[in-house]
Write a structure and sequence with these properties.
The complex is a heterodimer.
Chain A lengths: L5 E5 L7 H9 L3 E5 L10 E4 L5 H10 L3 H9 L4 E4 L1 H4 L4 E2 L4 E2 L6 E5 L8 E6 L1 E2 L14 E6 L1 E5 L5 E7 L1 E9 L2 E4 L7 H15 L9
Parallel strand pairs in A: 1-2, 1-3, 3-4, 4-14, 5-7
Antiparallel strand pairs in A: 5-6, 7-11, 8-10, 9-12, 12-13, 13-14
Chain B lengths: L4 E9 L2 E6 L2 E7 L1 H10 L5 E5 L9 H10 L6 E4 L5 H9 L4 E4 L1 H5 L2 H10 L4 E9 L10 E5 L4 E6 H11 L3 E6 L11 H8 L6 E4 L5 H9 L5 E4 L1 H4 L5 H10 L13
Parallel strand pairs in B: 1-4, 1-12, 4-5, 5-6, 6-7, 7-10, 10-11, 11-12
Antiparallel strand pairs in B: 1-2, 2-3, 7-8, 8-9
Helix pairs in contact in B: 1-2, 8-10
Classes of the chains: A alpha/beta, B alpha/beta.
């Protein structure tokens, strides 16, 4: 890899920007916090963080003029990592407030089914459905930190990388070409999380040869 | 399967970790960010900072503590103490905290929980409930009363009913402390924990009374707690997070294994 990977972390009013930016920096990224479309001009990858409600996330993206640029970015096959709410909004709609979301991945975000506790808060194991370089060096079943009540239900099973069980199993990681989504927070998941972010950096480095799907 | 969490709690006064007995005889125990990073490395599943700084001495020192901790400890951080408005909560979250815990402020202005949950999501809103046992009259079941101000003020609120109420108001997690057991090292009040945990759907964090690993097991097995918090037994190195997790795992409870990268 020549030079640091330039990563834009979208700031659309999501509360905690410190952890994700520091975690990305810890694995060698050149991180820019971006709150307007111009910030996307000069970067290699976009990270969409976030906790909170889907509706307010969509309106904040809209207010800052980031909605269409983000959709275009993903549709152009450029590297994108959605985390938690940032993962959910990649899909078409969310049952949380019944709102339309970005729609770059097909499926709908639904409330967790039969969950013994809601929100689902804590460390839970992420079980691989198929191997992927995003999880290189991370043991199958490793624990990651979750904080959510909803999760996407992808239409296309082929994008599913991993599932996690809380009540019934839900999809906790997806990859579609260079679009990645994680229901858990790698920036809050200690060593396993940093390893995953490091893998992401490797996958999105400009010289990397990951094929587009 | 969702792991049961082990959470060290750090009391912070004017930007430094302190320890003492019931807010008295405070001694400086070090830098909060350094201690948080160490606990994260030792396998802590989350860190709670309890700001005990007197109101008139607060000048954003806690925000700086959180910012530094979030820069080196990549585990969830919760801040309790002193947050009384949506804007103050926003500042704490933007500094790198994931959750804010409300205690006295929730009793004084319960609608604050709702306002914060609507703005940041209920997963970020923890309600701390300090409870004390009430005398049991013949034929009646045990009840607990909510207390505030470190146990010095009674509220006449029934702890179980209050727990159900704050969940309806928007709290996404409850931090339940037995004031009868706090600082006594006589074990958690598992009856109190179970009374609450079986009546709410949100996770319950047990607090107050930890003496050793067996108490953590009891808090989860008998108290139905999702997470267990302790302060002095970790700070004083009486027990390690590893030994607590080993006891929990041996009892068949799901815990996140401590990472192999641990040196």
């Amino acid at each position: 890899m020549s030079g640091a990977v330039r990563v834009a972390v979208l700031d659309y009013g999501a509360a905690n920007m410190v952890s994700i930016t520091k975690a990305l920096a810890a694995v060698g990224a050149d991180v820019a916090v971006v709150s307007e479309p111009a910030g996307l001009a000069d970067v290699d990858a976009v990270v969409v963080p976030g906790v909170g409600a889907a509706g307010s996330a969509m309106s904040h993206l809209q207010e800052r003029g980031l909605l269409e640029p983000l959709r275009d970015w993903v549709r152009a096959g450029k590297p994108c990592l959605g985390i938690c709410l940032g993962y959910q909004v990649l899909f078409e709609s969310s049952a949380e407030g019944d709102v339309a979301t970005l729609g770059v991945l097909s499926g709908r975000t639904e409330e967790l089914v039969d969950a013994p506790t809601l929100p689902h808060i804590g460390w839970n194991s992420v079980n691989a459905v198929r191997p992927h370089a995003l999880f290189d060096g991370i043991a199958d079943g490793s624990y990651f930190y979750f904080v959510h009540s909803y999760a996407p239900v992808p239409t296309d099973e082929r994008i599913v990388l991993a599932r996690t069980t809380h009540g019934r199993p839900f999809v906790s990681a997806v990859a579609s070409g260079r679009t990645f989504g994680l229901q858990f927070h790698p920036e809050k998941s200690s060593e396993a999380g940093l390893k995953l972010l490091s893998n992401f950096m490797g996958l999105v480095a400009p010289a990397s040869g990951v094929e587009r799907g | 399967m969702l792991a049961r969490r082990v959470i060290p709690c750090l009391d912070v006064d004017k930007g430094r970790v302190v320890k003492g007995t019931k807010f008295l005889n405070l001694t400086d125990e070090g830098d909060p960010a350094e201690l948080a990073e160490r606990y994260a490395r030792e396998g802590a599943d989350e860190i709670v900072f309890l700001d005990i700084t007197a109101a008139h001495e607060r000048r954003g020192t806690m925000l700086e503590v959180v910012r530094r901790a979030a820069s080196c400890a990549f585990v969830p951080l919760t801040v309790g103490g002193g947050v009384r408005s949506v804007d103050e909560m926003r500042d704490v979250l933007r500094s790198g905290a994931d959750k804010v815990s409300f205690n006295t402020a929730a009793v004084a202005t319960p609608e604050l929980l709702t306002a914060c949950a609507e703005r940041f999501g209920s997963q970020a809103v923890v309600c701390a409930i300090d409870a004390r046992r009430l005398p049991v009259r013949d034929g009646e079941t045990q009840c607990w009363e909510v207390v505030t101000h470190g146990g010095r003020r009674a509220t006449e609120l029934d702890a179980v009913a209050w727990a159900q109420r704050v969940v309806e108001l928007g709290a996404g997690e409850l931090l339940v402390t037995s004031m009868d057991r706090d600082g006594t090292h006589s074990g958690f009040d598992t009856e109190l924990l179970a009374a609450i945990a079986t009546r709410v759907r949100v996770p319950v964090i047990a607090s107050g009374g930890a003496a050793g690993p067996d108490d953590f097991v009891a808090a989860v097995r008998d108290g139905k707690a999702d997470a267990v918090l302790a302060a002095s037994i970790f700070h004083r190195r009486m027990h390690s997070i590893a030994s607590v997790k080993a006891a929990m795992a041996a009892a068949g409870l799901p815990v996140r294994p401590i990472e192999e990268t641990l040196s």
